[in-house]
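step 3/5: co-fold with WQD
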Amino acid sequence: MSKILVTGGTGFIGSHTVVELHNAGYTPVIIDNLSNSNIQILDQIAKITGVRPEFHEFDLCDEAKTHAFVQANPDITGIIHFAASKAVGESVEQPLKYYHNNFFSLINLLNAYRGKPINFVFSSSCTVYGEPDTLPVTEAAPVKQAASPYGNTKQISEEILAEISAAYGNYNTIALRYFNPVGAHSSALIGELPLGVPQNLLPFITQTAIGKREKLTVFGGDYDTPDGSCIRDYIHVVDLAKAHVAAIRLLEKGNPNGNYDVFNVGTGKGYSVLEAIAAFEKASGQKLNYVIGPRRDGDIIRVWGDVTKSTAQLGWKAELGIDEMMASAWAWEKYLQENPIG
Ligand code: WQD
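step 4/5: write tokens
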């Protein structure tokens, strides 16, 4: 079975992708420095798949360790690169940490594969679009001035991949532009595991509902949207994980679009924050304690993806709706209450 390297594989999207790779008959191999995840996730994955994934703990910013790993593992045919810092707010406060971590890890990994044919799937983000001029946003939309160092690292990383794919010929790459990943595996054994106070909406909702947080603040109720709150394209993390398997398969088959390509990974439908809250209350049966507060700097008002290209050319389409996103996120939060991780 083809060995696929999953960097950041103990993280939220990484762990779900490891499960889907296993389900698709691949052998996932994880590298993670555990800076934003917990090693117990390996046991959780084993409870789901029956196999504890091969795991290597080191930082991809360590060039020597990265090269040594690649030399010792010649049978890896593909890479799914998640390992990066990803908190928008933190990146504004600590830009150097973001540029160092996100670029050194990517470049070390690419350098270690110089001259070796490799399929490479990159975790990118819809933040590259900024505030789109037209909606739904397609992959042909112009990349806008990044609203944060985090978003800038995604834009520049995409440019690096496009240029090295054209220059060297041994890298076959796909960048997946995620919209908003939410939810958890149906087993409720893995899910989003924010360290400290959650930055993202869904974990804040579920932690408020379970009583870990006193209330949710909706960042802004006076935007130019139907109910005044921001609109996002929420996508179930399991659907997102399956998109990575589809990308690996396309690269193995040979992408007719060439050796660098970009795909939107969303549902094509936008929900406002208040609609997301209502969907959570319906799915969980829990009334949520929230208030409308001031806007959050840097927030995009409305963004949702055009997924025509992904459906037609990646051979992938999201299947799970907002109800399952909310129900699975709630089931995971309740699991954590009885089985704390970390
Ligand atoms: C969603 C909406 C907030 C928290 C970012 C990155 C993206 C991806 C996901 C990594 C916004 C509102 C949130 C809260 C709120 N990153 N909100 N109260 O900012 O759309 O996307 O995280 O994978 O690349 O850009 O996600 O979940 O932070 O916010 O009202 O306590 O929820 O204002 O409208 P965001 P988010």
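step 5/5: annotate
The two ends are 32 Å apart (CA to CA).
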